[in-house]
Specification:
heterodimer; A: Oxidized Rhodanese, domain 1; 10 helices; about 10% strand; B: 4-stranded antiparallel beta sheet; repeat (chain A)
Chain lengths: ~280, ~100
């Protein structure tokens, strides 16, 4: 993968509005954002109700994903262009999710909804009707998804990249600061994890920095490019953004997103936790 | 004022204000509220901590920690505006921002 295959500009999207084989998909943390206005022709995926199992803490399974995309009118050969608020956190999460189930052609709108709005581009309220398809998904590609046991085994062995804000990493905050801070899990980070906030990868307008800048940021933060990497945050959406940088923009092969992230790790019994700004020992 | 409403306009229903260090306010342009401005919260080192779009009345809110923070506001057709604010657990810091 590379920037040319995985990222499109706001202008590119505007130039391709109405193209038959392109499906614009908005995914937001604020699931009501789409209803207040969205890019012409875009459909909505709700990360809480569409992409999560409603009983267990896990993703919907392959058959459910097939049913979801079929009902939304997304075909296997369609180019899916994802965008959303929060600098594309949840759009990047959906991107990773589409890749998990093997969708071939997925792209991210660089800068997401914020860039689109700051450019004063048009948002509409019309909800498009797409005829249902018969979507066929692949089995989950677990080469890009990390689970808790391999995260514990990775301490001191692989690159662990904690992409939360410095205050969350150190244990001074328990959640991103636009959310209430009362949380059940312990505060802190996984020992030996480097703290490289996801925001280091983005410009103020939400677009990604250049490949050279990105490489330098992670190198200076101590990422060893000869090692495999696991990224995590609080619930796996900001780390999808960093996974996208490593795996899709910088073309690094062995990079996983730990979607259990701190809400799972910080609730595990018996695992090591580091507090403060230092990485901590293995 | 309706139940749960506070100065700042956003509801605090379900939020334990005593345990939160709240920063909130309103973004205006020539006295008119600005919807969909982006307010980001930077920590004492200038590092990004969170970002929210303003609502239709220009309001925003953060749940921070004790200490000094910077609010950086981005809006269409405006330069970024930085404002410093002190947050304290159990209180609400109100910030008015003009772009």
């Amino acid at each position: 993968m590379s920037r040319e295959n995985t990222l499109v500009s706001a202008q590119w999207v505007e130039d391709h509005l109405g193209d038959d084989n392109i499906v614009l998909v908005e995914v937001d943390e604020d699931t009501s954002a789409y209803d207040k206005g969205h890019i012409t022709g875009a459909i909505k995926l709700d990360w809480t109700t569409d992409l999560q199992d409603q009983v267990r803490r896990d993703f919907i399974n392959k058959e459910q994903f097939e049913a979801l995309l079929s009902s939304k009118g997304v075909g296997n050969d369609d180019t899916v262009v994802l965008y959303g608020g929060n600098n594309n956190w949840f759009a990047a999460y959906a991107y990773w999710y589409f890749k998990l189930y093997g969708h071939q052609d997925v792209k991210l709108l660089d800068g997401g909804r914020k860039k689109w709005e700051l450019d004063s581009r048009e948002l509409v309220s019309d909800v498009p009707e797409r005829p249902a398809t018969t979507y066929s998904a692949q089995d989950q590609d677990t080469s890009i998804r990390a689970f808790r046991d391999e995260v514990v085994d990775a301490i001191g062995v692989k690159n662990l990249v904690d992409v939360r804000s410095p205050d969350e990493y150190a244990g001074r905050l328990l959640a991103p600061a636009h959310l209430p801070q009362e949380q059940a899990q312990r505060a802190g980070h996984i020992p030996t994890a480097a703290n490289v906030p996801w925001s280091k990868a983005a410009n103020d307008d939400g677009t990604f920095r250049s490949d050279d800048e990105l490489k330098q940021i992670y190198t200076e933060a101590g990422v060893d490019w000869s090692k495999d990497t696991i990224a995590y945050c609080r619930i796996g959406e900001r780390s999808s953004h960093t996974w996208f940088v490593f795996h899709e923009l910088l073309d690094e092969a062995n990079v996983k997103n730990y979607d259990g992230s701190w809400t799972e790790y910080g609730s595990l019994v018996g695992v090591p936790v580091s507090l403060g700004d230092e990485r901590g020992e293995a | 004022m309706s139940c749960g409403a506070k100065l700042g306009g956003l509801s605090l229903n379900g939020v334990n204000v005593a345990k939160e260090a709240i920063i909130q306010g309103q973004v205006v342009r020539e006295g008119v509220p600005v919807e969909n401005a982006y307010v980001r919260l930077l920590d004492r080192t200038g590092e990004f901590t969170a970002e929210v779009p303003t609502n239709e009345e220009g309001h925003f809110r953060f749940f921070a920690g004790d200490g000094e923070w910077t609010l950086r506001t981005l809006a269409p057709r405006a330069e970024a505006v930085d404002k410093k604010v002190i947050a304290q657990t159990g209180s609400i810091a109100e910030v008015a921002i003009a772009v």
